[in-house]
Design a protein that fits this description.
With 320 residues, this protein is an alpha/beta fold. It is built from eleven helices and 13 strands. The radius of gyration is 20 Å and the shape is globular. The termini are far apart.
């Protein structure tokens, strides 16, 4: 009922997006731009996909820079993230995490960030989010879809989770990646047949040498869907004696962290969080918490490699 009542507001949101796109003159960067986005508010696996692409491109000898809006940070940019000096409160948690893999720029004006990246040696710019932002031309776009969430109720914000209608978004995407275990992917495709041709991918925990099997754990996460992280811990054999989810990007107050630490001590458990959450912890507290790494693993890199090859064949913008 609430979604139906909010539907007219969603139509207004949709119309505003169309009007914005019509009125905005897109900037074309001098190097190829690959956007990694999604159709819903939050989640989808954009950051793990960005990590996977940055590592793949580095292995090919390609200098890639990433541009992010820097959600949750105070710096408007363009600003190149310095992981040794910047904090999540300055640049946002995701850019700070990604900066350990490649040069990262935070810029509210994404086009300005892409231009700065190109000036400083980027051969390709990865745009973290921004699929619905018309200010910067994209040479290719990859859409990430969380199999557990899919497209929700199919309605646009605020009546549902969508940033734009599904058909409009899929029509602009070069590749759609459906992220989740096989059962979740099958359920998503049954509900949304338009995902039948999506490339499948799973979140995996790389070898760290730490065995969580039977380990008592107090877990906490402030991401789009904390329950995904908790399920990952359970899949590693961890015994979750407490699991607390918080809002995405939420800063952690010291009082809250002290409470979590006290709970872990009382339960004889290990404190565990995500790598993204760890960037928002006070430096002195990070020693008390294990940050569990997770990586996105596509079932087939060939479709992604073809996009990379297409981008490499693009002439400089002045010759287009």
């Amino acid at each position: 009922m609430t979604a139906a009542l909010l539907a007219p507001v969603g139509w207004a949101w949709q119309a505003a997006g169309w009007l914005r796109a019509a009125r905005t003159r897109s900037v074309t960067a001098p190097v190829p731009v690959l956007c990694i986005g999604n159709l819903t508010a939050g989640g989808g696996g954009k950051t793990p996909m960005a990590v996977a692409c940055l590592m793949r491109l580095a292995g090919r000898g390609v200098t890639a820079h990433l541009v992010s809006r820097g959600y949750g940070g105070r710096i408007k940019g363009p600003h190149r993230v310095d992981p040794t000096r910047d904090r999540a409160a300055d640049v946002g948690d995701e850019p700070l995490l990604l900066a350990s893999y490649a040069p990262v720029w935070v810029s509210r004006d994404r086009a300005a960030g892409a231009l700065e990246a190109a000036k400083t040696g980027a051969e390709i710019v990865l745009l973290d989010d921004g699929f619905q932002n018309p200010g910067l031309s994209k040479d290719a776009s990859i859409l990430m879809v969380d199999a557990g969430q899919g497209f929700g109720n199919g309605r646009v914000i605020p009546a549902g989770p969508l940033r734009e209608p599904v058909a409009d978004g899929l029509a602009r995407a070069d590749l759609v990646i459906l992220v989740g275990p096989p059962a979740s992917r099958s359920a998503a495709i049954a509900r949304w047949p338009e995902l039948a041709n999506a490339l499948s991918a799973e979140m995996v925990v790389p070898e760290t040498g730490l065995d969580l099997s039977g380990q008592r754990v107090v877990a906490f996460a402030g991401i789009a869907r904390p329950e995904k992280f908790f399920e990952t811990l359970r899949s590693q054999g961890a015994m979750l004696v407490r699991a607390e989810g918080f809002a995405d990007h939420r800063p952690y107050a010291r009082k809250m962290l002290d409470r979590l630490q006290a709970t872990a001590l009382q339960q004889g458990a290990m404190l565990v969080t995500t790598e993204k959450d760890a960037t928002r912890l006070p430096p002195a507290f990070r020693r008390e918490v294990m940050a569990l790494p997770v990586r996105l693993e596509p079932s087939d890199w060939a479709p992604i490699d073809r996009i990379f090859a297409k981008l490499a064949a693009k002439p400089p913008s002045g010759d287009r």
